[in-house]
Design a protein that fits this description.
alpha+beta; 15-stranded antiparallel sheet; two-stranded parallel ribbon; about 20% helix; Oxysterol-binding protein OBPa
Length: about 400
């Protein structure tokens, strides 16, 4: 993705050919309005060639935006066409690292900790900047007639160690419009909240969906206020894929008039690529390695092969579930654990404040394989399937 043109963050839309649309129409004929789609198998042409465990990293596309906040006292999520990521299998995980321009780093891992209902837990940490993010996503898909919605439940917590502040975030919902008629368009909708008790601040932002006859795509409107007094301090507006503006309400009241200033400009922001170890360094249930044959087939537009490989993965998952049921074995996530608050949290606790020690602990926890070796990120990709799929030097955002 280029970061030099706002056109890259235009409305995400796609027009289906007649054959794919006919397949969708046939499938939809079996559905009921507001039906839960979590157990519905989608045809491969509607799949984005990556897993939901990797899709979560879109939230970290612009870490510089957070780092700037730390140094001084929402991002352009881009996808080609309207696609659905792979449904992760139980125990599947995705891990990566980031190398920033200032020679600092960050580390990420997401794991599918539950299959029914689907829950993906995530962990992100930048030791040098003392920024940590953890949370879980609990998507619920619904059929609404001419659209499919992904209702994103769960939680996220962003911790700024320098200020000892915790920001609790709820997610907006995602909608794919126009699946029966018109162009397919991806939208975010409803309200997302960010609250911080330590700073006594709350941010309520509405992701506005386009009306049938009026309005535009990707518009947001929000307010930053004091939690204790509910006084509105700032107003936020704009397009979440291009430019977001901020207005100082108190300053406007003092001056009588005031124009909003740019808070976020996707054309000027730097998308930091994530680094993923080559397939030979990955385990069998790491997302890119697990789905590589499906990804290759989708990239090559060989939907028959994609369906065959995808079905094999899903069948193996069903067999594993039967085996666990027979042996009374309980699945235990590798990186996360369910705690008394009902949420999944990282098993790695008490991360040192010292960046060097913190980095060592995190690298050992995230990247150590069962054989005791740490993933070698310098090893060149030589897997012919991965190379054919174009994943070797590609970081998706």
């Amino acid at each position: 993705m280029s970061t030099n043109a706002k056109s890259d963050c235009a409305v995400v839309e796609e027009e289906l050919d007649e054959e794919p649309r006919s397949i969708i129409l046939s499938m939809i004929g079996q559905l009921r309005k507001e039906m839960d789609l979590s157990r519905v198998t989608f045809p491969t042409f509607v799949l984005e060639p990556r897993s939901f465990t990797e899709r979560v990293t879109d939230f970290m596309s612009h870490p510089d935006f957070l780092i700037q906040y730390v140094q001084v006292e929402t991002a352009c999520a881009y996808a080609k066409g309207v696609k659905k990521p792979y449904n992760p299998i139980l125990g599947e995980f995705f891990r990566s690292r980031y190398a920033f321009d200032d020679d600092t780093s960050a580390f990420f891992v997401a794991e599918q900790v539950s299959h029914h209902p689907p829950i993906t837990a995530m962990f992100y940490h930048s030791p040098e900047h003392h920024i940590a993010i953890e949370g879980d996503l609990r998507p619920k898909s619904r059929f609404f007639g001419n659209s499919v919605g992904m209702l994103l439940e769960g939680y996220a917590k962003v911790h700024f160690g320098k200020w000892n502040e915790n920001y609790h975030v709820t997610y907006p919902n995602m909608y794919a419009r126009g699946i029966l008629f018109g162009k397919m368009v991806l939208e975010l909708g409803e309200t997302s909240t960010v609250t911080c008790q330590e700073s006594d601040l709350a941010f309520d932002v509405e992701f506005k969906t386009k009306g049938m006859l009026w309005g535009t795509y990707n518009q947001i409107a929000g307010k930053i206020r004091r939690i204790s007094t509910r006084e509105v301090l700032y107003e936020i507006s704009g397009n979440w894929q291009t430019q977001i503006f901020i207005l100082d309400v108190r300053e406007k009241r003092r001056l009588g008039t005031l124009e909003p200033t740019v808070l976020f400009d996707s054309a000027r922001e730097h998308v930091v690529p994530q680094l993923v170890a080559c397939a030979a360094e990955q385990e069998s249930n790491e997302s890119r390695n697990l789905w590589k044959y499906v990804t290759k087939a989708i990239v090559e537009n060989n939907l028959d092969n994609a369906t065959t490989y995808k079905s094999a993965i899903e069948e193996e998952q069903r067999e594993d579930a039967k085996r666990r049921e027979t042996t009374k074995e309980r699945f235990v996530p590798r990186f996360f654990q369910l705690e008394t608050d009902g949420n999944y949290h990282p098993k790695l606790k008490n991360i040192p404040e010292d960046p060097v020690k913190a980095k060592e602990d995190i690298v050992n926890w995230v990247f150590t394989r069962p054989d005791g070796q740490i993933q070698d990120f310098d090893r060149a990709e030589d897997d012919p399937v991965v190379l054919a799929a174009g994943l070797a030097a590609k970081s998706r955002h």
